Amino acid sequence: MPKLRRLAGREALSILQGFGFQQASQRGSIKLVREVAERVRC
User: Fold this and answer.
1) Binning pLDDT at 50, 70 and 90, where does residue 6 land?
2) To 10 degrees, the CA torsion angle through 16, 21, 23, 29?
3) What is the largest CA-CA distance in the chain?
4) Taking the alpha carbons of 23, 27, 28, 33 in that order, is the dihedral positive or negative?
5) Distances from the Cα of 39 to the Cαs of 28, 36, 42, in angstroms?
6) I need a surface site. Which of 5, 16, 22, 26 has the fewest CB within 10 A?
């Protein structure tokens, strides 16, 4: 099995932004927040 590729922080952040994550802050390590749409029950 091949080894996984190492990603830079910016590369990982750009991938995670595709799943709805946004960068909240960065002091030491990057903190992420995910925006979730409200669900409506019928």
Assistant:
1) very high
2) -60
3) 48
4) negative
5) 34, 9, 10
6) 5
